Amino acid sequence: MAFVGAFKLTKRDGYEAFAKAIGATAEQISKAEALRPVTEISASGDTYTVKRVFPHQTTTNTFTLGQKCDLNLVEGKTAKDVVVKLEGGKLHMQGAKFTCVAEIEGNNLKETITLGDASMTRWSERCIMSFAGKYVMEKRENYEAFAAASGASADQIARSSSATLTTEVEENGDTYVVKRIYPGQTVTNTFTVGQTQEFSFADGKKAQAAASRVGNKLVVTGPNFSQESEIVDGKLKETLTFKGATMIRYSTRA
Q1: What does the pLDDT average to over 241-251?
Q2: Binning pLDDT at 50, 70 and 90, where does residue 8 land?
Q3: Cβ atoms of 47 and 55 closer than 8 Å
Q4: 82 to each of 50, 72, 234, how far by Cα in Å?
Q5: Which of 11, 69, 118, 176 could form a disulfide with 18 if both were Cys (CB 3.0 to 4.6 A apart)?
Q6: Exposed/middle/buried for 82, CB within 10 Å: 0-12, 13-18, 19+?
Q7: CA 203, CA 154: separation in Å to the nearest integer?
Q8: DSSP one-letter code for 130
Q9: What is the DSSP letter of 153?
Q10: 45: Cα separation from own chain's centroid
Q11: How far, in Å, CA of 123 to CA of 112, rounded?
Q12: What are phi and psi of 149, to 5 degrees?
């Protein structure tokens, strides 16, 4: 979806008048002038979650197209009974005194927001999250069920439950080199976003899979298998699914 991703504020017009209209103080306006918040948008069907990440606070709104909702604004303000619709590729948010029209222009999220007689337009540039670096596995959830689904024996699962894993990621444009360093072996995969290629796994198996970028996620999809990688709070989070069993693995930067 076009709106899914992370966007960093680059400029805004009419901010001061708009901020005064929602009740911000002169001190709050002065401090906010230099801020460049990040807007994170995710979607599941017709339901969207929008996070505005500021240094001092994060506001989160979840809404479903066509349904009424209350939207949290900055500094504790709220827009009541807002209905959001997707029309002509734009998200239209309409309340009694509040409107917002969001659209994608090139690589930017453009939002025109009106409250009463005050209007502001802001532009935020899409962020492309970098995965490059070295990571050490911190924890994993549901490993045993995932390993069993992939064909590992009880003995193999027991031995690997306490095994260490270091992941090294290199990026060169849309091409990635990912090394998985296990005790006794290293598995390396080189792949390019938008292409289908062969992937190797720790158990020696190989499979054809396609790589793509979905927002800030790196997604690999193959027969009965998928993996979504993302950076969350500075950590590498990987969600792996095989034949219906899902494991989540967290790794910290080394």
Answers
A1: 95
A2: confident
A3: no
A4: 14, 11, 34
A5: 118
A6: buried
A7: 14
A8: -
A9: -
A10: 16
A11: 9
A12: -65, -30
In contact, 235 and 130? CB cutoff 8 Å? no
Pairwise CA distance, residues 113 & 86, whole Å:
16
What is the C-alpha separation between 72 and 82, in angstroms, rounded? Answer: 11
- Indicate the SS3 state at residue 231: strand
Q: Could you give all domains of the chain from N- to C-terminal order, each with its CATH number?
A: 5-127 (2.40.128.20), 133-253 (2.40.128.20)
Which residues have C-beta within 8 Å of that of residue 28, sequence separation ≥ 6? 19, 75
Residue 55 pLDDT level (bands cut at 50, 70, 90): confident
What one-letter code names the amino acid at 8?
K
Q: Which two tokens stand for residue 62?
A: 């979840």
**Beta carbons of 160 and 147 less than 8 angstroms apart:** yes
CA distance 164 to 150: 19
Residues 78-100 have a mean pLDDT of: 93
Q: Residue 106 and residue 185: Cα distance in Å, rounded?
A: 44
For 20, the token pair is: 């005064």
CB of 74 within 8 A of CB of 52? yes
3-class state of residue 149 by DSSP: helix
DSSP 209: E
- Count of beta carbons in the 10 Å neighbourhood of residue 185: 9
Q: Who's near 112: CB < 8 A, 6+ residues apart? A: 100, 101, 119, 120, 121
How far apart CA 189 and CA 179 sit, in angstroms, is 7
